[in-house]
């Protein structure tokens, strides 16, 4: 493989798979609250 | 308030698995690698990522928000936005009907090819085997003179499985199936890619896929290809995500879920690209030709190029079983979501129970599928219906949705507020710009581009008369059916009468899982 191809492959993997990992971490940091504990008001 | 009697996902991960399962389909495996290769290789990553962030994920959030806000299938959800807009929802339901009918057929082919792989039964000429021995395709499109038993039986099996899963409901059927199928698919594909990377010539293939050609970034067609790939591969534009989001709990993180689903879809696509091009690199090396001479996409890649490669590699049969099993699994999870749109729409509209809806509505799609496609003319019908319903069904409906919601009804700000109420990542002004300006412009451009191509040359050089009914006719009929069904007055009673509110009444059966 040429250097530019290797670089682009690594960059693609890091951005796309890294994006997935970051999105999962972000979502897990904000677990869903049980419905019955939350008032109906927005932004709570 | 949530609607207590509507079915709900058992967990957040259940919804995510289902949404990812819907997005990951055949297009990820057989469309992305060739599109990336033909549009700049490694350089394609840039327009592709920009398309994901400026159209794919914003559209996912839009559909999640509409489904989650109204807790209804597309027709009733759009009716909640504005009464006449329900026609869009019914149009999407009709599109799903058409797509489900032929999509199941491709899964049935892949199912048969799992068996064919074991003995590499296609022999020396995979092309002749597929179109001749297996499909028994007629010489020319437009005629149907005989049934093809080899397709009929696996097709019936596919429909039995899909309808059985749907009959079990959202939580016990769709969610559990996806929680099993998606990890299975990833395992299959990781093993496949691992094997492919150890083949001679694999790195030649990856070199071809990833070598960047930066000069193409000035070419508008490459950007359209990137937006097109994102649009087609995310299962947006035909109501699936609205339907799935309608079963979410009240306090669901919509933007967070969209980011995970969007990146998961692209992650799998990238994995598929690596697997496919490593394999094509092996094939090119074995045949002593350049990679561009063996590059293929779609049906040709899966049922002609891959069987050819499988015959050339050691332990190819096992590779074939894994590859076609992956196609079956990826296809099934998408087909389930497509049929669920139709089932859910009819249930919301009529108030009938789950089982009668699945058997009646799903059965009707299955009947059309089984009657029309396992024939000697089936492959031409499938190819044509697929092309036209994609361009003048999905893309056109997607364009109409963003124009109507964004510009005619001006509901983007209220949907933005709705998403922000429960999401950790707030939607900013960028979301309004992406959906109000970027997406309509790009989808409009795609539409013009594709119309221009349509009139420059007949699709696949098929006869005009055939294209008129099997292509334009099918796409036009979906639109017509959508408009006509929306004109039928909504009677009082369960569901439809209060479809506009977040707490619309639905039948008791919906709560039973």
TrEMBL record, chain A:
<dbReference type="Pfam" id="PF16951">
    <property type="entry name" value="MaAIMP_sms"/>
</dbReference>
<protein>
    <submittedName>
        <fullName>Putative methionine/alanine importer small subunit</fullName>
    </submittedName>
</protein>
<keyword id="KW-0472">Membrane</keyword>
<keyword id="KW-1133">Transmembrane helix</keyword>
<dbReference type="InterPro" id="IPR031596">
    <property type="entry name" value="MaAIMP_sms"/>
</dbReference>
<feature type="transmembrane region" description="Helical">
    <location>
        <begin position="6"/>
        <end position="25"/>
    </location>
</feature>
<keyword id="KW-0812">Transmembrane</keyword>
UniProtKB/TrEMBL annotation, chain B:
<feature type="transmembrane region" description="Helical">
    <location>
        <begin position="180"/>
        <end position="203"/>
    </location>
</feature>
<feature type="transmembrane region" description="Helical">
    <location>
        <begin position="44"/>
        <end position="66"/>
    </location>
</feature>
<protein>
    <submittedName>
        <fullName>NSS family neurotransmitter:Na+ symporter</fullName>
    </submittedName>
</protein>
<feature type="transmembrane region" description="Helical">
    <location>
        <begin position="355"/>
        <end position="374"/>
    </location>
</feature>
<dbReference type="Pfam" id="PF00209">
    <property type="entry name" value="SNF"/>
</dbReference>
<dbReference type="GO" id="GO:0016020">
    <property type="term" value="C:membrane"/>
</dbReference>
<dbReference type="InterPro" id="IPR037272">
    <property type="entry name" value="SNS_sf"/>
</dbReference>
<feature type="transmembrane region" description="Helical">
    <location>
        <begin position="12"/>
        <end position="32"/>
    </location>
</feature>
<keyword id="KW-0813">Transport</keyword>
<feature type="transmembrane region" description="Helical">
    <location>
        <begin position="430"/>
        <end position="448"/>
    </location>
</feature>
<feature type="transmembrane region" description="Helical">
    <location>
        <begin position="318"/>
        <end position="343"/>
    </location>
</feature>
<feature type="transmembrane region" description="Helical">
    <location>
        <begin position="389"/>
        <end position="409"/>
    </location>
</feature>
<keyword id="KW-0472">Membrane</keyword>
<keyword id="KW-0812">Transmembrane</keyword>
<feature type="transmembrane region" description="Helical">
    <location>
        <begin position="87"/>
        <end position="111"/>
    </location>
</feature>
<keyword id="KW-1133">Transmembrane helix</keyword>
<feature type="transmembrane region" description="Helical">
    <location>
        <begin position="468"/>
        <end position="488"/>
    </location>
</feature>
<dbReference type="InterPro" id="IPR000175">
    <property type="entry name" value="Na/ntran_symport"/>
</dbReference>
<feature type="transmembrane region" description="Helical">
    <location>
        <begin position="223"/>
        <end position="247"/>
    </location>
</feature>
<feature type="transmembrane region" description="Helical">
    <location>
        <begin position="151"/>
        <end position="168"/>
    </location>
</feature>
């Amino acid at each position: 493989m040429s250097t530019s191809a290797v670089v682009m492959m690594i960059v693609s993997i890091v951005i796309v798979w890294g994006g997935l990992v970051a999105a999962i971490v972000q979502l897990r940091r904000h677990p869903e609250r049980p419905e019955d504990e939350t008032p109906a008001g927005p932004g709570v | 308030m949530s609607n207590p009697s509507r079915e709900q996902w058992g967990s957040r991960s259940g919804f995510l698995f289902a949404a990812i399962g819907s997005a990951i389909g055949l297009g990820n495996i057989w469309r992305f690698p060739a599109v990336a290769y033909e549009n700049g290789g490694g350089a394609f990553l840039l327009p592709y990522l920009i398309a994901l962030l400026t159209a794919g994920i914003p559209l996912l959030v839009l559909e999640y928000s509409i489904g989650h806000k109204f807790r209804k299938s597309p027709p009733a959800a759009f009716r909640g936005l504005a009464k006449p807009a329900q026609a869009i929802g019914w149009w999407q339901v009709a599109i799903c009907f058409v797509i489900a009918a032929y999509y199941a057929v491709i899964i049935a082919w892949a199912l048969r090819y799992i068996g064919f792989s074991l003995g590499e039964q296609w022999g020396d000429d995979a092309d002749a085997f597929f179109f001749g021995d297996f499909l028994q395709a007629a010489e020319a499109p437009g005629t149907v003179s005989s049934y093809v038993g080899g397709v009929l039986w696996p097709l019936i099996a596919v429909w039995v499985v899909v309808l059985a899963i749907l009959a079990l409901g959202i939580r016990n059927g769709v969610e559990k199936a996806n929680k099993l199928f998606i990890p299975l698919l990833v395992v299959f594909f990781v093993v496949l890619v691992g094997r492919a990377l150890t083949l001679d010539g694999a790195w030649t293939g990856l070199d071809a896929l990833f070598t960047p050609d930066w000069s193409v970034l000035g070419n508008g067609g490459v950007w359209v290809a990137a937006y097109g790939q994102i649009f087609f591969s995310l299962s947006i534009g035909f109501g699936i995500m609205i339907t799935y989001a309608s079963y979410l709990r009240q306090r669901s993180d919509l933007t967070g879920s969209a980011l995970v689903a969007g990146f998961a879809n692209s992650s799998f696509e990238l994995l598929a690209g690596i697997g496919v091009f490593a394999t094509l690199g092996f094939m090119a090396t074995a045949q002593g030709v350049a990679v561009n001479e063996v590059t293929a996409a779609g049906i040709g890649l899966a049922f002609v190029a891959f069987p050819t490669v499988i015959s050339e590699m050691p332990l190819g049969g096992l590779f074939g079983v894994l590859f076609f099993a992956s196609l079956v699994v990826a296809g099934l999870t998408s087909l389930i979501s497509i049929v669920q749109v139709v089932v859910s729409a009819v249930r919301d509209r009529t108030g009938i129970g789950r089982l009668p809806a699945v058997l009646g509505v799903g059965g009707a799609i299955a009947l059309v599928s089984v009657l029309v496609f396992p024939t000697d003319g089936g492959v031409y019908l499938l190819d044509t219906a697929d092309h036209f319903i994609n361009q003048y069904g999905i893309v056109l409906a997607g364009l109409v949705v963003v124009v109507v919601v964004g510009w005619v009804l001006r509901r983007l700000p209220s949907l933005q507020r709705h998403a922000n109420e429960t999401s950790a990542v707030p939607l900013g002004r960028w979301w309004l710009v992406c959906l109000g300006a970027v997406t309509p412009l790009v989808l409009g451009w795609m539409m013009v581009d594709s119309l221009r191509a349509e009139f420059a040359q007949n699709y696949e050089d098929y006869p005009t008369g055939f294209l008129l009914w099997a292509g334009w006719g099918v796409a036009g009929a979906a639109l017509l059916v959508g408009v006509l069904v929306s004109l039928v007055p909504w009677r009082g009673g369960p569901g439809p009468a209060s479809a506009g509110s977040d707490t619309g009444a639905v039948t008791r059966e919906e709560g039973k899982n």
